[in-house]
């Protein structure tokens, strides 16, 4: 597919939209990850970043979190490009929470306590981060 531009529409620097850039390096995406308490380390390869996320989350459903946040940030980017809706981290986070809630009926019952603990920690993180 030939596009008029392969640069990030969300960034002033107009960086090329590689997979790594879209999902880990774009400032919008990094802020979306940060809304879950996850920092994207600089100068780390994508697989190392995902391993770092896995370690930091320390939950058996880490991959679901990664996929849903990647999806949520991508839909925020697409809303900007195709619908002229300003990308907001809060909107991305709301989309993530909505999608995460839809996943509940597919999750192993044994994960429920860990999911509730993780969600509580995210809520606490958000409360603390909004106070600053």
UniProtKB/TrEMBL annotation:
Q: Report which superkingdom the organism of origin falls in.
A: Eukaryota
Can you say what this protein is called?
Reverse transcriptase zinc-binding domain-containing protein
Species this chain originates from: Arundo donax (Giant reed)
Q: What is the lineage of its organism?
A: Eukaryota, Viridiplantae, Streptophyta, Embryophyta, Tracheophyta
